[in-house]
Write a structure and sequence with these properties.
This protein has 528 residues and is α/β, with parallel strands linked by helices. Helix content is 41%, strand content 10%. A 13-stranded parallel beta sheet has the order 1-3-5-6-7-8-9-10-11-12-13-14-15, with helices on one face.
Length: 528
């Protein structure tokens, strides 16, 4: 048939509407930018965005709408793309309205902690604090840490803080008078305190200011006006017995307190007793830290008795104090009430086996979601290993285990390793350095953790592992060498007081096996 015949069939002609050209997409971004940043019925109802923020949002809106429409188009490849175009337009409109309803992004945090510590004088303060003078600012969080304020600078800050105290919720004044003479430092603290009186804070950080009792009382106006405080940090503040009593006296209410942290102070027993009074008034406490504060058994027991009432506790850190076995037993009784505990830091407390076993048995009965357990440097021996292994085997969510600086030796290391073998897929770090561990214990620990998904570090340095044992451990970690800590301080010829010979487990060969009879058919939790 002649191609020019009127009866010849003609192939239908179609126009594909999708995808749009790049120039069309850019034009749409420009239009949306104008819609978001110029007066209209919608921007009058909500708020106009700046040109820069409007353009950023327009690009995100267009990309999101384009992706949704393209996905839709892929499901109907034989169509002309008209339904994809409709979806593209609909998504753009929906997302524009969402951005308008959300309003412009507002900066809520003001932070001068940039770079090294600086001495802030009057002139610097005028320039540095200028953003806070804007009557339209929305700052609810201020951090003045790492800038040492003079009296002149404090006077500049005073009226600004007065104007902000109805909106301020979080205040960080840590390390803000460093290097100032005592008289000047106390005056600066008093100026800030009076300016912020009646400020309804949720979080207050006064750390690293060497406060002592004088400094605490310089903040008296601020502290006495706090009735809704949820977090209080007094770290490295020279909190003596007198300073601790002042804190207890000045705080009117701690009923909403969730975080209370003291660290590296000189609190002592009587200071700890004063802190225990704060703890007793804090039923919602979730995070308590009183570490490296020279607290002995008497103060420790007072704290622990008070903590028994804090049934919402999730984290406790009492590291590096002068507790003893008796305090450890008291702590074990308190821990029985803490079902929500996830992090426990109890290193360097002179607990010994008796105190450690009491704590371990208490945690076994409570804290089902335990993630971190640190009991380093407590003179724990292999006699406590079965109790430790029993606890570990029942805490499948454990992420970090630190038993460094004890005397668990091979027998203890093997029991710990066996307890870690099954489950514990969340485990990230195990620290067993300085434990007089030999070749067999090191291998059992390595084999127990090496295949855990996401495992990051096994630390077994500073032990008595033979050169051959070191090579075997490295072989175990050959596919993930970064997960094995250094072994450069290991002593292959080391000896311990008992002159123990190296044990072996089944399949280990013909090595010495003094402990084999104890370890054969070992069951976690078995008492010797």
């Amino acid at each position: 048939m002649d191609a020019t015949s009127p009866n010849s069939q003609r192939r239908p002609f179609s126009i594909k509407l999708w995808p749009p050209s790049q120039s069309t997409r850019l034009m749409l971004v420009e239009r949306m930018t104008n819609n978001l940043s110029t007066p209209s019925i919608f921007t009058r109802k909500y708020e106009i965005l700046s040109k820069e923020e409007a353009n950023e949002n327009a690009k995100q809106i267009e990309n999101s709408a384009y992706a949704s429409a393209s996905e839709h188009y892929e499901k109907e490849p034989d169509g002309d793309g008209s339904s994809a175009v409709q979806l593209y337009a609909k998504e753009c409109c929906r997302l524009i309205l969402g951005v308008l309803k959300s309003g412009p992004k507002r900066e809520t945090s003001f932070n001068i902690c940039q770079g090294p510590r600086t001495f802030i004088e009057l002139e610097e303060a005028e320039e540095l604090l200028k953003p806070l003078k804007d009557s339209n600012n929305h700052y609810t969080r201020i951090r003045f840490s790492n800038g040492s304020f003079s009296v002149g600078a404090a006077r500049v800050a005073e009226p600004i803080l007065v104007s902000l105290k109805n909106q301020l919720r979080e205040l960080d004044l840590s390390d803000f008078i460093a290097g100032r003479p005592e008289e000047e430092a106390l005056e600066v603290m008093s100026i800030f305190s009076k300016a912020l009186e009646s400020c309804d804070l949720r979080s207050l950080d006064l750390s690293n200011n060497a406060l002592g009792e004088k400094g605490v009382r310089a903040f008296g106006s601020l502290l006495k006006s706090q009735n809704s405080l949820e977090e209080l940090y007094l770290i490295n503040d020279g909190i003596s017995e007198e300073a601790a009593r002042a804190v207890c006296e000045l705080l009117p209410s701690t009923e909403k307190l969730r975080v209370l942290q003291f660290h590296n102070n000189m609190t002592g027993d009587k200071g700890a007793v004063a802190i225990s009074e704060i703890v007793k008034r804090s039923p919602l406490l979730e995070d308590f830290r009183c570490s490296s504060s020279r607290v002995g058994s008497e103060g420790g027991i007072a704290l622990l008795n008070a903590l028994e009432m804090c049934t919402h506790l999730k984290k406790i850190d009492l590291t590096d104090n002068m507790f003893d076995v008796e305090a450890g037993i008291t702590l074990s009784k308190a821990l029985l009430n803490h079902k929500s505990l996830t992090e426990v830091y109890l290193s360097y407390l002179y607990l010994e086996d008796e105190g450690a076993v009491a704590i371990v048995n208490a945690l076994k009965e409570s804290a089902p979601s335990l993630e971190v357990l640190e009991l380093a440097g407590n003179d724990i021996t292999a006699e406590a290993a079965s109790a430790l292994a029993g606890l570990i085997s029942e805490k499948p969510l454990l992420k970090k285990l630190n038993l460094a600086g004890n005397e668990l030796k091979d027998e203890g290391a093997i029991k710990i390793g066996k307890a870690l073998e099954e489950g514990h897929d969340q485990l990230k770090e195990v620290d067993m350095n300085y434990n007089s561990i030999r070749r067999t214990g090191a291998k059992v620990l390595a084999q127990a953790v090496v295949r855990k998904p996401g495992f990051k570090l096994l630390n077994i340095n500073c032990n008595f592992i033979s050169d051959e044992g070191v090579e075997e451990v490295k072989k175990i970690f050959e596919n993930c060498p970064c997960a094995l800590g250094p072994l450069d301080e290991n002593d292959p010829e080391g000896d311990d007081d008992d002159n123990d010979q190296e044990p072996r487990v089944q399949g280990e060969g013909d090595e010495e096996h003094e402990l084999e009879s104890k370890l054969k058919n070992l069951e976690v939790g078995q008492e010797e």
